[in-house]
Known about the structure:
Elements: E1 2-4, E2 10-12, E3 16-19, H1 25-35, H2 43-52, E4 54-55, E5 58-59, E6 62-66, E7 69-77, E8 102-110, H3 119-134, E9 138-144, H4 151-159, E10 162-167, E11 189-195
Parallel strand pairs: 8-9
Antiparallel strand pairs: 1-2, 3-6, 4-5, 6-7, 7-8, 9-11, 10-11
Amino acid sequence: MTGSGRGGRATVMSVEIRVMTHEDVRDVSALADRLVGDDYYTPALVAETMERSTLSDQVFSYVAVSDGKLVAFRFVLPPGRWEHGRGQALAPERWGAPLEKTAYFQSCFVDHAVMGQGIGRRLAHRALADLKALGARAVVAHSWKESPHGSSLRYLTRLGFEAVAEHPEYWVEVDYTCALDGKPCHCTAIEVVLNLDQWTPPEATS
Ligand SMILES: CC(C)(COP(=O)(O)OP(=O)(O)OC[C@H]1O[C@@H](n2cnc3c(N)ncnc32)[C@H](O)[C@@H]1OP(=O)(O)O)[C@@H](O)C(=O)NCCC(=O)NCCS
């Protein structure tokens, strides 16, 4: 259910956070096309990423659903299921934890109509709690420097992530049409890290 929010944006009244399933593949791909550009997540890549997000039958990727409509998703690759993100650049010497104990926050997209309402934060809290229960010690992400409203870095910083490196043209070799640059993408990634040993689930926000 939605109401009328500030600046004409919809305010989501009730949002369910749940684990991503194969039935979500097309909706996840369509949302990514709208948010970041065509073909960043084709349906085939969504299915492949879900597979890499799975460890011992547990899926570490999540969706937010409002009124039966998928409004956001978060992909997470648990330790042992990744070596780099969509680009290649990484600064593991600055993480404070080894790769085999480190998870990767691959992507999070929230529908424009409901951005800035804490849905991305709720998806992250669910993921971080599950990763901590698994025994992961750190989480790495590549923040999109040019994201709308600077939302990416603001959101990750508020979760406790700290910037450790900046990678110009991080996505230049990814074969997709960037919503800002077309093809190729010239956007910059800021590599950020969260120490899970020190992270505790915040009360009343997730
Ligand atoms: C980044 C993103 C996943 C965060 O999810 P969210 O549900 O919007 O998260 P939050 O509600 O915690 O908002 C994050 C920050 O962005 C700001 N923001 C987000 N949307 C906004 C909007 N439409 N207008 C103004 N500010 C906005 C929020 O105010 C908040 O900043 P603050 O903590 O300093 O107040 C989401 O905004 C998004 O999909 N952005 C575009 C795609 C993207 O950048 N994904 C991450 C790629 S690494």
